[in-house]
Specification:
The chain contains 10 helices and 4 strands; from the N terminus they run βααββαβααααααα. By secondary structure, it is α+β, with helices and mostly antiparallel strands.
Length: 245
C-alpha cells in the first residue's frame, strides 16, 4: 500500500517525466476505473507538440513514499515524451487518503479534457457510493453531475459487473463482464442520455481545450480552401475545353 506524503514543493515546479507514476503503477484502488476514460487522443498530443510547453497548464501530481503520482495531465506528459524533453511543469496536491486521490482524478476529468462517457460517469457514481455509503442518492448525483434517477441504475450496473467477474470468463471478457454489460443496457442508455444532456456546471477552458478548438478551426478552414481551389481548377478546365471545341 502506498503512503501519501506532504508536498515538498510549493507552487509550480519542474519534474522529470520518467519519475512520474500512474495511479495503476502505485496500486491505487479503483485506478482502472479512474483511468478507463483516459485513452490517449492522438490529436490532443499532436496539437500539444506543436505548441510551447511553457504555455501549458501544469500537470497535477501528489507525493508518496514511492514518488510522485500523476492524476491529471497524461496528454501533456505523453507530448513531452514524444518531444524528447525530460521535464514538465507540475503542481503538487496533498490528499488525506487514496479515496480523495481517486475522486480528484475523476473530478479533473469532469472539468476539462475529453468529455466523460456515460460509462465513466457510472463508474464515478459507483466509486463515490463505495467511499461514502452514507450519502443520499441526491448527494451522489450532485457530486457526479448526473441526474438523481440514474444513480441507482449506475450502482446496480457496476455491482452486477463485479458479481459477474467472479464467474468463468465469457466471450473473451474477464468474468463475464460482457454479459453484465448487455443485461445492464437500459441503465447505460439512461446514463448516455445524461452524459449528452446540457451541463449546468461551469466550463473550465484549458490549454488542451484551446488547442483542440484551434486545430478544428484550422482543419475546417483548410477544407474550405481546398474546395475553392478544386472548384476553380474545374472551372478552368471547362473553359479550356469549351474554347477548343
Amino acid at each position: 500500500m502506498v503512503e501519501l506524503l506532504p508536498c515538498v514543493h510549493e507552487g509550480d515546479f519542474m519534474i522529470r517525466v520518467d519519475e512520474l507514476l500512474t495511479l495503476a503503477d502505485a496500486g491505487i484502488e479503483d485506478a482502472d476505473l479512474a483511468m478507463r476514460r483516459m485513452k490517449l487522443n492522438p490529436e490532443y498530443i499532436e496539437a500539444l507538440k506543436a505548441s510551447n510547453p511553457r504555455d501549458w497548464d501544469s500537470i497535477f501530481v501528489t507525493n508518496t513514499d514511492r514518488g510522485h503520482i500523476l492524476y491529471d495531465g497524461r496528454h501533456r506528459r505523453e507530448a513531452i515524451i514524444e518531444k524528447k524533453l525530460k521535464e514538465i511543469k507540475a503542481t503538487c496536491q496533498q490528499f488525506a487518503n487514496e479515496q480523495e486521490l481517486i475522486e480528484a482524478a475523476f473530478e479533473a476529468n469532469l472539468t476539462h479534457g475529453q468529455p466523460l462517457t456515460f460509462e465513466n460517469r457510472s463508474d464515478y457514481v459507483y466509486v463515490l457510493h463505495k467511499h461514502h455509503p452514507e450519502w443520499t442518492q441526491k448527494q451522489l448525483a450532485a457530486k457526479a453531475h448526473v441526474a438523481q434517477s440514474t444513480v441507482s441504475e449506475a450502482i446496480a450496473r457496476r455491482a452486477k459487473i463485479e458479481q459477474e467477474a467472479k464467474q468463468p470468463t465469457q466471450a473473451g471478457l474477464p468474468g463475464g463482464e460482457k454479459k453484465a454489460r448487455e443485461e445492464a443496457a437500459p441503465d447505460l442508455e439512461l446514463l448516455e442520455e445524461e452524459a449528452s444532456a446540457p451541463s449546468t456546471r461551469p466550463t473550465i477552458i484549458t490549454e488542451e481545450d484551446r488547442l483542440r478548438k484551434e486545430m478544428q478551426k484550422t482543419t475546417k478552414s483548410m477544407a474550405r480552401e481546398a474546395f475553392r481551389l478544386l472548384s476553380f481548377i474545374h472551372f478552368c478546365a471547362l473553359h479550356v475545353s469549351s474554347r477548343k471545341s
